[in-house]
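Record passed on underneath.
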Amino acid sequence: MQTVRGQIVASKAGHDEGRFFVVLEVKNGFAYLADGKERKLLSPKKKNLKHIVKTDTVVEMPNSDKQLRKLLNNFSRVNQED
């Protein structure tokens, strides 16, 4: 499965290991990620594609950091219950 805009991914390397992000853009082997808290929509994190774990979930892009935080919080809660 290819990494696409709006896909929820988890970091598997770095100080943010295990945290969920939404992919804003994929370019030249890197994904630009945001979580609405540490990495806002206006200043995404550049992360190597090898350092993320893709999920099967693709969401509609939120309009604000607050909506993004809520979306990822709900996603992580659902995944912890499984």
Q: What stands out?
A: The longest strand covers residues 20-27. The first helix runs from residue 65 to 81.
